[in-house]
Amino acid sequence: MSRRCTEPDSGIESLSADEHELETSCEESTGCVEELPAGEEQEKKESQPICNDSDGVDCLPRCEHCRKENVQREQVTPRKLCGGQYLMKLDSEGTYECSVTGLIFEVTKAVTINYSLLSWSKYAGLVEPPWVVGGPLFDVRCELPSTLTSIAFPHSLCLGGEYRHAVGTHRTTPRALTLPPRVPTDGGSPPAFKVLHIKGAGAAIEPSTDFSASHVRWLVSSLSPVGPLIRSEEPLLYHGAVVLYKAVDDDPSLLFRVYVATNNDSFIKDISRAVKHSKKKFIKIDKPPVCQKLLQNGKRYRLICEPEAEITPEEIEFVDGSLLKLKSYIEVYFEKPDDFTLSLVELDSDAVVWKAKLRESDWIHYDQNKNEQTRIPGNGAKTRCLLTDQQLMVIAKLFGVEWKEIAIECLQMEMKDIQQIQANEEEVNIQKFLMLSKWREREQSNGTAQALCNRLREKVSYEIVQALEENDIVK
Q1: 267 versus 383: which is more confidently predicted?
Q2: The CATH classification of domain 389-470, taken from the options 3.30.530.20, 1.10.533.10, 1.25.40.10, 3.30.460.10
Q3: Beta-carbon contacts of residue 416 (< 8 Å; ≥ 6 apart)
Q4: Higher model confidence: residue 149 or residue 176?
């Protein structure tokens, strides 16, 4: 059962763990390896892009303070479901790490686990000082909750190597791992980690059993939204990320949004959601997001552009905006399009925190609504390929039992249309095919694979999105 706890002691027992590197694909753009001029080689080397499919940059980068830990643990790639959910099927007892989110599950036998990433801003009123957000918030569900003994949550703090241990490697028999509390070498107090366990309209702050350079471990009391909190007497240092978006319209000028964030999946997903709901259309610019230096809470930073551009505001004070519903950003405006370099620097030292070279090729030919590259034949006219009956049948067979709800919500079908289809056809796959065919007919010249993918992306399984984007359906 859940417990509401008093303030922690100055020391916290540490468990094993290692800095891990997440290697997954970005949802909105595909990373590529490019040859860089000599001047940019260091930028690429120090700021490797590590992206996930949850609208952003998922990663705990291998920073200079954390990279010494290199314990290997068994990683499992989950199945991606509609609505941003993940499903992981584990075949036996042990400890497993999700290759997409970084969550580490300790189970006593074979089990299926469902989980999804949540926004902290929805629960801002439940986080009170001196506690602050320490990492992403997850809702975890399990068919047999008693088999899930512990969860280790990735955090976005850099602990500078003073408290490094490793979160357990895969083992046949799960066991509680505890190590003596460690005292930092500078004589200060170690950070205190706990977890916020949200239950209905309220929440309890529960103890963590261990923490490491990359994770906070929690013994499962019950399953509902949970995320790590931290309290520290010292200034907090974060693994940071810079995320870029470009406005897309008919204006020849260039307008960018630059978000400076903690490397926290919940934060990054909130940014993506805010951009999608903006009155302007934006595309995400694929540049190495990971900061070369740590971000410090309360420290001031300046964004510099070469050649000069209009930057508003020119300086910011960094704070973790995870709990804020409205995410702050820096606006960069160019009257005339040209290649340029953006640099984020510390105001007090001029040290470069992040740097990227942007070129016209980073956004040219992209569709206004999505990161969709338009094919332009030799005569310069844009062409679109309508979905064929064969392609629609491939997609129809991938839909699950929720196809009617998706048709109404995403494709603006009416229930009477679905009922009419079901009355005239008994075979379910044909029903789904006829539904998609009706959508294609209504869309006319826009009945393309990309248009269908754009409509379905947020609600359908990863298999459907993959089929539309990769299996020769989207050309």
Answers
A1: 267
A2: 1.10.533.10
A3: none
A4: 149
